[in-house]
Amino acid sequence: MATYRCPSCGTFNRVGSGTGTPVCGRCKKPLPTDGAPQDVDAEGLERAIASSPVPVLVDFWAPWCAPCRVAAPLFDQVARRLKGEAIVLKVDTEANPAAAAKYQIRAIPTAILFQEARERERRMGVQPAPALEAWLRAGGSAASA
Asked: What pLDDT is stored for residue 145 in this prediction?
């Protein structure tokens, strides 16, 4: 079973390998299963961290940040490759300063890996896709051990 987050209501859904387009069990809207990173606000971030059954990788970024624009496709690549195994979220620190303050974001891009509702580790700067993937997989394997 794979786990996906509904971008409409934030509910986590377990999806089997059946046919057809899955829908969210809560709001009944179509459930994207491509694994693409999802934009969240401060409230959505907190709900996702608290309730995710899989590791959550959060990209704290800003639209004016050139390194953030370099990092964005790397996060996208990793998110799509690990679809169903992990969730990748994006927090615009300009639009969500409270989230940036809560997590003491001092530089962007900053990536934070959350597991079992707790911050496991953070990394600042642009990270290569293979390093992000290995980091996320390590977080996932520790969760299931």
From this structure: 32
